[in-house]
Amino acid sequence: MKLSVPSQEPPLRFADVVVIGAGQAGLSAAYHLQRRGFVPAAATGSDPASASDGPGGAGRPPTYVVLDAEDGPGGAWRHRWKSLLMATVNGISDLPGIPQPSVDPREASSSFLSRYFGEYEAELGLAIQRPVKVHTVSREDINPAGRLRIATSGGAWSAQAVINATGTWTRPFWPIYPGQSSFRGRQLHVADYVSAEEFRGQHVIVVGGGISAVGLLDEISKVTGTTWFTRREPVWRDAAFDRQAGHDAVALVEERVRQGLPPQSVVAVTGLIWTPALRAAAARGVLDRHPMFTGIEPGGVRLAEGSFQAADVILWATGFRAELEHLAPLHLRGPGGGIAMDGTRVAAEPRVHLVGYGPSSSTIGANRAGRAAVAGIVNLLTGPASRPALQSTQA
């Protein structure tokens, strides 16, 4: 008779800071943690006493770990469609400390940025563990200065602070419209888009008023017929998007999250910028926008003025929501539906910082947010007497 051997849970591991996600915002946070003297946490269980007295407790340096759910470097860029080339992608800011290598504008952004992120991780020796899926983040006790428990697919971690950098790619937003389930054609979100060729010979409805929507309209319209629908009339910018315009847009998004409202995308504030490719698409009639349809029928959609548009495909370019479900045990959302923020810090929970959220969801904002989050956590975890020693380790 065989005796069953109970499965053993991995031992609880300890770090001063756990970063969740290794996209641009997570890598920025890891970089700034290392500059502040944080070192990789032990990959196996460690003595909780050595991790309970603040950064560098018991004379040791402070520790961190980055937990990433992806199979390799690149974050959400690993999943972008191959036709999104470096020549057409929105400007990508350099990761802090190491500039981008030379860019071939004809290379797919998914391959270039995955390679850039991987080389960055390797050169700096960042403490990244993958693939590790974070299930929940919860408080270990009622002490507001106590520790947080991070339950993952690879076992649990105990931390003094968490930097959440999970982005939005894993939470595509699908609107609900009457008759949606009756549609006989194909419905997909931009998160599932591969290439225009798969739609050749079919009529494609594109729904959405953002950058992805107009970019894919241009691409798909070159191989087949398209119709464009948005809830609001798109706002186009003729002027260049300069530093002041960017600052003003981020400030508006930041004000929303400070009030605890769900964040808008930055492009919702800035509008769409005319490019030569989009002007050519407009000249072809591709950007002839229609008000949102009132319902979906088996063979197409019913327009607001009553006419019918036949379609084979509905492509929902309707954006994404922040991936924050694992933070639900902390009850961070307020009555406004969002999470009230003070910079990158959750106003009601100073041990948690959100980067790549709201105003820091752009690539430039993500880098700044990583630095700001680390500065805030150092201030939280370090007393006046020990702070100079910790900061003296900066590069």
If you had to describe this structure to a student in words, what would you say it looks like?
With about 400 residues, the protein is α/β, with parallel strands linked by helices. It has 2 domains: about 15-170 and about 320-390, FAD/NAD(P)-binding domain (3-Layer(bba) Sandwich), CATH 3.50.50.60; about 180-235 and about 270-315, FAD/NAD(P)-binding domain. It has 8 helices and 20 strands. The chain has helices at about 25-35, 110-125, 210-220, 245-260, 265-270, 275-285, 365-380, 385-390, and strands at about 15-20, 40, 65, 130, 135-140, 150, 155-165, 185-190, 205, 225-230, 235, 270-275, 290, 295, 300, 310, 315, 340, 345, 350-355. The strands form 4 sheets. Strands 1, 2, 3, 4, 5, 6, 7, 18, 19 and 20 form a 10-stranded mixed β-sheet that branches. Strands 8-17-9-10-13 form a 5-stranded parallel β-sheet, covered by helices on one side. The protein has a 3-stranded antiparallel β-sheet with strand order 14-15-16, with no helix packed on it. α1 (about 25-35) runs parallel beside α7. The termini are far apart.
